[in-house]
Every structure is written in structure tokens, then in C-alpha cells.
Amino acid sequence: PGYSRYFAFQSVFTWAMMFLVLSSSLFQLFVFWELVGLSSYLLIGFWYEKFSASQAGKKAFVMTRVGDVALFMGILLILIHTGGVSIQGLNGSDITSRMSPDLLTLSALLIFGGIIGKSAQFPLLTWLPDAMEGPTPVSALLHSATMVAAGVYLMARLFPFLSHAETAMSVFLAIGAITMVMASTMAMVEKDLKRIWAYSTISQLGFMIMALAAGGFFEGTFHLTTHAVFKALLFLCSGVWIHLYGTNDIFAI
Predict the structure, then answer these.
(1) Do the Cβ atoms of 114 and 34 come closer than 8 Å?
(2) CA distance 122 to 160
(3) Stretches in the chain below the pLDDT threshold 50
(4) Are the C-beta atoms of 53 and 47 separated by less than 8 Å?
(5) Could you tell me how far CA 144 lies from the centroid of its own chain?
(6) To 5 degrees, how large is the angle CA 240–CA 61–CA 213?
(7) CA distance 142 to 14
(8) Which long-range contacts (CB under 8 A, 24 or more apart) does 242-246 make?
(9) Residues near 26 by Cβ (< 8 Å), separated by ≥ 6?
(10) pLDDT tens, position by position, 210-252
């Protein structure tokens, strides 16, 4: 049921995600960032007749919007003080002469607020396990390869700009470490197969944030790419087992 509706929502999501990746300025990126959030809400709550699915969609939408407010404030702060939000301009070596160290740190932390929301970092990580209420292909697409990776992608895209704010990078490193440890330990006591993969995804995203915050641009982006492949396959395999046994409980499987 809802076959055409599913593919319509998924097409909107894919279109928004492609343009997010291709954006040349932070404002353009922010517009498609929000469209990705909207389409993820529609896909997570795809089985809206089911109360838990509609609640999960709303929770994901609200929690990611909290981070997006911080991201928007960071973009406005940069625009006011530099007169432009071109990504290429921000990553230039002259940015330190146009913005004071304190301003750089504040704008970096605000931008990271958006990354926390979208990539399910501590403390905004609880929406991702609940988002497993959506169809399994949605979990494979959104919650391993694309949507949650958008936050890490933004951090990698703005890596030269963010690396000027050393205090902020230390904060990113701490948050990534906390997220990685918390999510991996929570996965150890979970029984639902898809929720285990969700906690694993959060843990791996924490790894990526840690790598980038420690100055390892290649390491962080390489893990982002490999994770997209292996986690999407894990989700799709879990969908096969769930259809075969009619349950998500790993002890029943």
C-alpha cells in the first residue's frame, strides 16, 4: 500500500540530497538541508496509520529543527560579519583576518549545532533509533548513507573554516567521543534488530566527527564513504530477516 507515495517521497529526498551536496553557498545548502529534513519526516512517518510511526516522524522533525535553528544563526552571524556565505570564500586563508577568534569559535559552534541535530550526536541522538519505524529501505537510505551523513559532510566541506577555531574543534572531539561510547554501549543491550543498527550508526557517526575534529580529514571522509556501503547492506539484510520471521526481535530470529 502507498507504493507511488513512497517513491514520490523518496524522489524528493534524493533530489534534495543531491542539491545539498552540490551547493556552492551556505544559504543554498540550508534550503536543501531543510528539504531533506521534511522528506525524512514524510518517509519515517510513511505508515502514518501506526501511532508509533507518526510519533517517530514528528520527533525526528522537531529534534533536527532544534539543531537547524543553531545552524541558521551561525550562517547569519557569518553573513553579517563577512558579507557573504560562499563556501569557497569561507574556506579561504583570509577568513581569520575578516573574523575575530571569538567570532570564529561562536559561528563554528552554532554550525555544529546543525550537525548535532542532523547526524544524531549527543544530546540530540534519541530520534534516530525511533526513526526505525519507517520502511527498511528508508532506514538503509536515510539512516546510513545520506541524511545522517549530511552533518558529517557539512563538517568535512567546511573543514578549513572550522579548523581555525581550535576551541570549537576540541568541543567537537569531546561530543564525538561521548556519542561514540554512549551509542555503542546502548546497542549492546538492545533487542530490536533495526534499533541495534541505528545505535551502531550513531556510534560510527561519532567516530567520523572525532576523526575530523582531530584533524584527520581523509580518515573522517573515508569512514563516511565505507560506512554508507556496509550499513546500507546491513539494513537491507535486516529487512529480509524481518520479512522472513515477521519480527524485529533478535532473540526470536
Answers:
(1) no
(2) 24
(3) none
(4) yes
(5) 9
(6) 85
(7) 10
(8) 242/136, 242/193, 242/194
(9) 75, 78, 85, 87, 90
(10) 999 999 999 999 999 999 889 888 888 888 888 888 888 888 8
